[in-house]
Amino acid sequence: SSVDVGMLRRSWPSLIEHLGERRQPILRALLESATVASFDGESVELAFPPQFRSNVKRVEDRVETLRSALGDLFGISPRIVCVVRESRVGGDEPAAVANVEEAEEPSEEEALKRLKDVLGATPVDGDPED
After folding, report:
1. pTM
2. How many Å apart are CA 50 and CA 85, to the nearest integer?
């Protein structure tokens, strides 16, 4: 039953739904732009795209609510770290931090995306004979 980063990513929509049920519409909306960047058992790193930079502070203000929601769903109460993740190096974020993660991340997501494309291709396109 150990929670890992993959499980958190897959279950993120459930967390967002849960916050909606708990009448936390602001936190819910803020977290819709977040991606689970990493989880080491101690802390969850949430990455926000640069255009949602202002969400970081607002999520940090509501971090206890988020932790208790994570506790409800996953039985974890990690430290929450919010970062702004540039898609390219630049801006005032420490580039090193951004890049270490970036290096491994697209591969997994790309692989999943490609897998979906392959699996989804046939049924979606229908019969070539049509």
Report:
1. 0.64
2. 6
